[in-house]
Specification:
binds guanosine-5'-triphosphate, 10 helices, binds magnesium ion, alpha+beta, 2 domains
């Protein structure tokens, strides 16, 4: 396996794929036998609002953004059953992982996916009309079954957004880590190194943390404003911690 081609990519099996029982089909499309890719991490995630907002930050302000958050959080496909609202997050690692996976997925829009590449995963998706609160048609929603990282920069951001280093076997971790010597607490969207009543400890001494996260946290704790939001670091520490819906 040529070292320079080794890439990591985040795949999300979205709620519509789960609802239509396509998980097994999708996993077989990406199997090591067919693609040369290996599982580096996998978890079932109840998608908290911070995670959804950070994952789709580039689409904030677009007409489909609110529906995108509802979609990835499972509200659209499981309006009456919070226990089914989840996605399967998978980290794949292997040669040319990003391009390989995107090709198997197909175009973002399922109609175009069907035309351009019959047989791709998103050819099985659907397009749904969207209306504003007055009932006026505002465009379409793409229920496209799966997410896949688009390029190495997005992959790094997304992998660090969805996974803790310890979700990944040490030999498959793709970015530098550091062992924390500090405590970090969260309260009302602010980071602190000391406990106050009502705060939530998400990192303790000895925890293995993404090095870039630790750097940001130290600066945030000192009150320095960063380009990246607190949510981008904290979202993964909130995964499956509490049920926001019940
Ligand atoms: P992902 O793998 O999900 O990130 O899709 P992508 O990389 O093919 O597309 P992109 O990152 O641009 O968009 C993320 C998601 O937003 C898509 O999966 C779609 O569900 C939705 N989306 C993106 N562009 C459009 C658009 O022009 N119209 C609509 N209705 N939805 C869009
Ligand atoms: Mg994308």
């Amino acid at each position: 396996m040529a070292k320079q081609n080794l890439e990591s990519s985040l795949v999300l099996i979205k709620p519509d794929a789960l609802k239509n029982s396509l998980t097994g089909y999708i996993l077989s499309q990406f199997s090591e036998f067919h693609t040369g890719l290996r599982f580096a991490a996998l978890k079932v995630v109840s998608v908290n609002l911070a995670l959804a907002e950070e994952h789709y930050a580039e689409h904030k302000g677009k007409f489909f953004y609110p529906s995108l958050l509802e979609y990835i959080r499972g509200y659209l496909h499981y309006p009456d059953d919070p226990s089914k609202r989840r996605v399967i997050a998978i980290l794949y690692r292997g040669p040319n992982a990003i391009k390989n996976i995107r090709e198997i997925c197909g175009n973002t829009n399922p109609h175009e996916a069907r035309q351009q590449r019959p047989g791709c995963i998103r050819a099985l998706g659907t397009v749904i009309p969207l209306y504003d609160e007055k009932g006026k048609f505002i465009g379409e929603r793409s229920d496209n079954l799966i997410h896949a990282s688009a390029n190495p920069q997005d992959a790094e951001h997304e992998i660090k957004l969805w996974f803790l280093p310890t979700d990944i076997p040490p030999t498959m971790r793709c970015f530098p880590t550091e062992t924390s010597k500090e405590y970090f607490y969260l309260k009302a969207n602010a980071i602190s190194s000391t406990y106050t009543p009502g705060s939530f400890c998400f990192i303790a001494p000895g925890d293995i943390v993404w090095k870039s996260d630790l750097k940001l946290l130290r600066q945030l704790e000192k009150g320095k404003k960063q380009d990246i939001s607190v949510k981008a670091v904290i979202a993964k520490y909130l995964i499956n911690k509490k049920n926001e819906d019940i």
